[in-house]
Amino acid sequence: MIRHLLVGNPAAQSGRAEERIQEALAAMRRRGWVVELMHTLPDGLTVNALRDRLNEGRVDVVIFLGGDGTFAEVAKGVLAADERRPLGMLPAGTANDQGRSFGIRSGPQNLARNLDIIGARHITQLDVGRVRRVNAEGREDASELVFHSVGFGMQPDILAQRNEDKELVAQFPLLRQIYRDYAVYAGATLNRYLASWVEPTKFVAEVTADGVKRRYEGLTDLVINATPVYGGNWVLDRDAEPDDGRFEVVPVAGRREWASKALLDLAKVPIWQEHFDALGVSHTETFSAAEVEVELYRPEAADVPSQVDGEEWVDGNHFRLVVHPRLLPIITPKDWTPPWRPA
Prior knowledge:
By secondary structure, this protein is of the alpha+beta class. The chain has 10 helices and 18 strands. The strands form 4 sheets. Strands 6-5-18-15-8-9 form a 6-stranded antiparallel β-sheet. Strands 14-13-10-7-16-17 form a 6-stranded antiparallel β-sheet.
């Protein structure tokens, strides 16, 4: 008898997530599954609580229900336990980078298919990164696991603006129902894009990847991506694999390159580099590496903001990242071909 533990955040989506959690529980029990429920806890307490629950035993498969933030919390708990259980996915977030990277869609209409995937228990061993900030004395003073991306520049600025907007919107019930999720993110993106015309946003980056140093000037963003899908709809490297022991490093030089990359890297749009070559539009090289050291310089400010897995992290100008290959067992579809791969 396979024993399942479902972990979900009942407070997500203005409390509507609790209904989805109960629907998932009922659907699993109709299939005859043995399943227990664990709610996430605030202030980062979920990781240790899940670790302790798994160390008690009597769990064979962990299932998360939520967004990429919930995935990260549950994955950390799985990795912290004495024995690693496979992690099944019931995505319910906005971007859903983890699920989309493996063809797992979010929403109640996909619940039955997602449970079929979990029931088949086909395992992919996911690469996991560890990013650390290095202070002026050369000491590593902040550390975080990375499951789908770490980034520096304007995207973290957008996340900071998004979080400010979410706090403001939460104070007005009617506005909260209308202006949420993608709408909040889109509003924050527009805000920071317009501000970038009058505020200093560009920076210089020296990136040492697997011992090879590259220097970039005039960057607005630097993304280091773990899973193929980024931001819900973009595939920044169509040859990327989630279990090859390497992350993709994506420098973005200016607003024009963001716009062209946004078109080139959309997962469902058949636009290829040769189309841009014909127009004379080039892109900064994307490459992959197992170890990356990043030094950032912005003359107008001492530090550059960062994000990890779609959430604000620490500001700084010196970071190190190491990829730990095939560290996290996740349950994925067995026979699925990424639609962004060239035929």
